[in-house]
Amino acid sequence: MHPHTATSPLLSLLPPLLFSLLLSLSLCACGGGDYVPQANRAPVALAGPAQVVAVGTSVKLNGSATDADQDLVGYTWTLSKPAGSAAALLNYHVASPTFNPDLPGVYVATLIVNDGLLDSLPSTVMITVH
């Protein structure tokens, strides 16, 4: 047998052993494969600035939201109004809905946003109507 053509059983095991060693080192370097995704965090709602308007003037709310996980959010507004008012929010599931105050007094709009899993804390804005 020619010395350059002889193969040793040890040499044939070298590639699989080297691969196993590199794989083990890679797994150790990245934490062993024990990846734990970060828990979802609730979004934050911001109902916008207070407003002072005249009766019958259209009011546009200026809501916004942030989400630390960069999830898309849905908006839900509610409106508290003076007794006897028939005012209603138009498009209450958008960031900037509108309404027409029909009586003088204080209207309070409340915004809650949801990221598909969690609701934000409510954020309110006061609209004073003269």
> What structural class do the secondary elements suggest?
alpha+beta
How does CATH name the architecture of the domain at 44-129?
Sandwich
Radius of gyration over C-alpha positions, nearest whole angstrom: 31 Å
Low-confidence stretches: none
Share of β-strand residues? 25-35%
H/E series, N to C? HEEEEEEEE
Average pLDDT value?
85
Largest sheet: 4 strands, mixed
**Count of DSSP E strands?**
8
Number of helical segments with 4 or more residues = 1
Could you tell me the CATH topology label of the domain at 44-129.
Answer: Immunoglobulin-like
What is the CATH level 1 assignment of the domain at 44-129? Answer: Mainly Beta
Separation of termini? 107 Å
How would you describe the shape? rod-shaped
Helix content: 10-25%
Instruction: Name the CATH superfamily classification of the domain at 44-129.
Output: Immunoglobulins
The main sheet orders its strands as: 2-8-7-5
